[in-house]
Design a protein that fits this description.
Elements: E1 6-10, E2 18-22, E3 34-41, E4 44-46, E5 49-53, E6 57-64, E7 69-73, E8 78-82, E9 88-94, E10 98-103, E11 116-122
Parallel strand pairs: 3-6, 5-11
Antiparallel strand pairs: 1-2, 2-9, 3-4, 6-9, 7-8, 10-11
This protein binds copper (II) ion.
Length: 123
């Protein structure tokens, strides 16, 4: 319904030609897109390693178990706030194999600096 999907071309890392489209919060994944549920809590993401195959599109459905966090993927120009009680969807399509780090971008306490993970793209 009037969904506006912005495509962010991300060629920041030369080895990783990756496209990310932020899914509007109202739009669910389409049939062929795999959904990966991700939780954020002090001071970790679960799963901390998100695996996908090159060329595959996944929709991350991120929820907080406690307080406000952030989901930032600098290489993909993604920085979403993760509000308690809401599902934040981030659509990721990875064209090439590689490792893409992500971390919490909202200070959430003494373990905030360790709140991080990786998207691992298999060939
Ligand atoms: Cu946090």
């Amino acid at each position: 319904m009037g969904g506006r999907t912005s495509i962010l071309g991300a060629s920041f890392a030369a080895a990783l030609a990756v496209l990310v489209a932020r899914a509007p919060s109202a739009s669910a994944a389409s049939a062929q897109e795999r959904i990966v549920a991700v939780t954020a809590e002090r001071f970790k993401f679960t799963p901390a390693v998100i695996e996908l195959r090159a060329g595959e599109t996944v929709v991350l459905e991120i929820t907080s178990l406690d307080r406000k966090h952030g989901f930032q993927v600098p290489d993909l120009n993604v920085d979403e706030s993760i509000e308690p009680g809401k599902v934040t969807r981030v659509r990721v399509t990875a064209a090439k194999a590689g490792t893409i780090p992500f971390h919490c971008s909202v200070f959430c306490g003494s373990g905030h600096e360790e709140m991080a993970g990786e998207i691992v793209v298999r060939p």
